[in-house]
Amino acid sequence: MRDISVQAVSDLVRRLFLTANYEIGPDIESAVTHAMEAEPSPTGKSVLCQLCQNYQIAREEQMAICQDTGMAVLFMDVGQEVHFTGGDFEAAVQDGVRRAYADGYLRKSVVDDPVFDRKNTGDNTPAVLHLRIVPGDRVRILAVAKGFGSENMSAVKMCTPAEGEAGVRDFIIETARRAGPNPCPPMIIGVGVGGTFETAALMAKRMTARPLGTHHPDPRYAKIESDALAAINRLGIGPAGVGGKTTALAVHIASAPTHIAGMPVAVNICCHAARHAEGTL
Known about the structure:
By secondary structure, this protein is of the alpha/beta class. The protein contains 8 helices and 10 strands.
């Protein structure tokens, strides 16, 4: 059994959300740079150039990549040989988020009630926590700062098994088409297929943080990824919705076993500012 202080967890959470909001991932920056070089639309090319400049300024000046600094979502893989010491684990995680958004002068965007009061909590908490118990004595944290211009364009469909491969692909493309310019393209599109209503959405959210340039290990799903991406980039929406062929940078699919009667499909859209960071204790 390995002891880990909850203060160490809190400190790591704080650091990850600062990093995620200030420093775009090298895979995303590289993809946007390559898209800029290949984009035939002069206006689209100009938008992509500005995005690259923005990434550089944010990194050098330690300023937020985007004014929407997101709702804090954490995927935490906790080793079964870990024993947390020094206080309440979840309270420590929330404190790490709270300190990151205060210390980093990041916008606080969380309201306490979704329908009625909608009063800002003032510190961007509570964060959303997803925990898995895994073998080992480490704690791995993926911190995602999820903006809602793109989140609002996401969708879930309870497809029938008869819809098959075409049903999955068409739903991904149609969701991107309906989103149009609203999610600040170029988009990164996470997709979850299988499981249940909620696990499909959870897989889709994780897939927005999968490294660009990677593919589903099953070539059949990898083909859906590539076919859907090509079709989305033929829609003509383009960077920032101004037209062009760079509407999405990637389509990432995760799949899971499901019930004989169903085929849930969730599409979680993320903007070009796919803010996430990982760390391990």
